Amino acid sequence: MGSSQAAAGDTSIVLPTVYVTTATRIEQDITTSPAPIQLIDSVDVKAAGATTLRGILDLAPGLYVSPSGSNLQIRGLGGSDTLYLIDGRRIVGEFSNAFELERISASMIDRIEIVRGPASMLYGADALGGVVNIITKRPAAGLEGGGDIQYGANDRGDGARAMLAGDLRGGNETLNFSFYASHLHRDIYAERETAQVSVPQSGAQVAPSRHPNARIRNGLKDSYEVDVDYRDQADVDTIGGALEWQVTPDVKLTLDLNAMREEREGTYISSRYATNVMAAGKAIQAANIPARQYDDNERLDTALTFDWSLFDTLDLRYRLHYSRYDKDRVVYAVHYADLGYATRNDSASSRSESTMNQWVNELTGVWSPGENHSVLGGLEHRDNNVESTSFDADTRTFDSAFLQHEWQILPSLNAVYGARYDDDSVGGSHLSFQAGGIWTLSPLARLRANFAQGYKAPDDRSLYVDQVNPQGVPMLGAEVINPEQGKTSAHNLDPESSDTFEIGLAGEAAAWDYGVTLFHTSVTDRIERVREGSGLLTYNTFRNINEARIQGVETEGSVSLTPALRARAAFTHFSAENLETGDPLLNTPETLASLTLDYARANWLLHAIVSYAGEQDYSGRAGIETAAGYTLVHLKASYMPPTLAAVEFYGGIDNLLDEKIDPGLGSDPGPYAYLGVRYNF
After folding, report:
1. Residue 141 in contact with residue 173, Cβ under 8 Å?
2. Torsion-angle region of 337 (φ positive above 0: left; ψ -120 to 50: alpha; else: beta)
3. Which pLDDT tens digit goes with each residue over 484-504?
4. Of 294, 489, 556, 667, which has the fewest Cβ atoms less than 10 A away?
């Protein structure tokens, strides 16, 4: 992807071999990987002009990032179906991954490797739909670094963001280090809406002015004008780095550290909020109440890695990894006095204070018994401990073992296959398999076939949560019994699993390349959040409710139109269906398309990107609604003055044509301009 800009300037260039590690956990030429691997290299990361991971993935072909910024989809599966890694390490955070796209700083990223499709054979639970491996800027000999400052806002000055970032790397043949730090501030982007308030009366919802209770009738208004924040106010600070010590030519020690703190707040319309007015011993619940949510989250991730080249044919790695996530969330009513509360603090709801600790012990080895064979094996033990006001769960352990064989059968034929066994102290045991091959018929034709399995064990939230969510609805896990909220019995949850078959054809010449993939994915025992109960005792819980089928085609390619101009295009179309109901999967656009023009001349780089996401169904206030497709146009540019060789000025305009997006998907701030300057040495 990123090398396309270099190619645009000179079509006679022979591009160097591109190596990736995420698809097989062994460094390999990207063109010989049977698994579907997508690379966003350092050139593309810089060209995006992004402040967070979201801004980079927004522009990646074949991926869908929801307008709300809370969901990344890979081939129709998103949210908690995607496993996020930092330098190959599993990170802890929200069970839904809701904040990951907006909290991982773009300034710390060197490149991103994405596995499209399940990858549980190598990564175990949670790699149901795909893997995103964020590779940070690693230590390097010598001394190099840089700084980056950026500011942007939409055409009305709303949703402003500012970023300040820096990094430093250096060392010698024995000791190397890397360091990075960033601060991101983002103002809200809001749209004015009307909250039509209602309260229950005799089995129906009525306006407060029609309610017989005088405190409700005289306190609550029938409607409120409210600025709903579609992008919350956020401050995110990140610091991290690594220290590498080459103890001997065969032994290396690496210490990694990444720390993040964020503060977020935003106003929304809560579907249900408890008033301070009692009826029959219970608080009267009001619907469609303006509320404001506050989040204060911290994450610490650290690892010690020991690499040992025991023999010329055997490399061992042991990694001890610790990750901690602290979450503090609370919601207050905006018009708390109207609900009968004396102070804002009295109206506090949906409070969640949680601490998640994860310890991972991992031992892997790569044995190369011959020139054409590589065997990867590994053992992993993981302890997850959660202390939370939202649920009560014991320490959960995961033990696994996997084995993979890569076999160069012929100079033109490569095969990779393997199996993994996982044992979850709560979810039970699971076997995952993967097998694929790639046959290079010629530079213009590489035929690829792959079968992969994924699975996701029920998480602690879906099993044990017992709290009111920010929308005011009780969230009750499968194992929870809470008669006061209407749930009188527990039920079982089975792990989700997915099987994917795919076949692809790709090739390249000096001035162009292409790729076509057909895929079929079946998902069984899908875990979904469902609304149960009746009347005033309705609640959300989690059940295995359906089987899903996703099948389609992915195409992408690029061509040099002139020595300075290159075009890249991608098109994805698939059907995503709930097999029990026959309905499309929600929040899943079945068509994605993009066209990018890269122009490189002298000290200028110019990019024009057009992306399209097709129509999709979503759950709205009136039931299942359909959002129309939308097309976004982005312009980006960078300039390096000849007299300031270490300085790069860059900027861009996102959503140039002010395309409107259905608010049910998250809305968009409209034309958004930004300017920045980088200094590198």
Report:
1. yes
2. alpha
3. 888 999 999 999 999 999 999
4. 489
Give, in degrees to the nearest 5, the angle at Cα 302 between 94 and 44.
Answer: 70
Distance between CA atoms of 233 and 591, rounded to whole angstroms? 31
435 pairs with which residues across the strands?
417, 451
The residue to which tokens 């110019």 are assigned: 606
Are 57 and 472 within 8 A, CB to CB? no
Q: What is the DSSP string of 414-466?
A: EEEEEEEEEEETTTEEEEEEEEEEEEEEETTEEEEEEEEEEEEPPPHHHHH-E
Return left, alpha or beta for 3; rule: phi > 0 is left, psi -120 to 50 is alpha, else beta: alpha
Which tokens hold the place of 337? 């006095």
Residue written as token pair 């400052």: 149
Q: How many CB atoms lie within 10 A of CB 517?
A: 22
Q: CA 589, CA 661: separation in Å to the nearest integer?
A: 13
Task: Tell me the backbone φ, ψ of residue 478, rounded to 5 degrees.
Answer: -60, -35
SS3 66: coil
Lookup result for tokens 């940070």: 136
**Strand pairing class (474-476; 496-508):** unpaired
Take residue 276 and report the two structure tokens written for it. 């301070």
Q: Which of 302, 313, 209 is nearest to 256 (CA)?
A: 302
Tell me which H or E stretch contains 371.
none
For 234-259, the three-class secondary structure string (H helix, E strand, C coil) is: EEEEEEEEEEEEEEECCEEEEEEEEE
Q: State whether residue 510 is helix, strand or coil.
A: coil
**Please, is 384 exposed, middle or buried when counting C-beta atoms within 10 Å of its C-beta (0-12, 13-18, 19+)?**
buried
Selection from 71, 52, 72 nearest residue 62 by Cα: 72
Asked whether the whole model's pTM tops 0.70, one would answer: yes
Per-residue pLDDT reduced to its tens digit, 39-97: 999 999 999 999 999 999 999 999 999 988 888 999 999 888 899 999 999 988 887 77
Question: CA 50, CA 588: separation in Å to the nearest integer?
Answer: 24
Taking the alpha carbons of 214, 216, 217, 220 in that order, is the dihedral positive or negative?
A: positive
The Cα 667–Cα 252 span in angstroms is 48
Helix or strand run (H / E) with residue 610: strand 604-613
Token pair listed for 476: 């009750």
Name the region of 77 (left: φ>0; alpha: ψ -120 to 50; beta: rest).
beta
Which residue matches tokens 């991103």? 112
Token digits for 107? 């300034």
CB 35 within 8 A of CB 26: no
Per-residue exposure over 276-290, b if at least 16 CB sit within 10 Å of its own CB, e if not: bbebeeeebbbbbbb
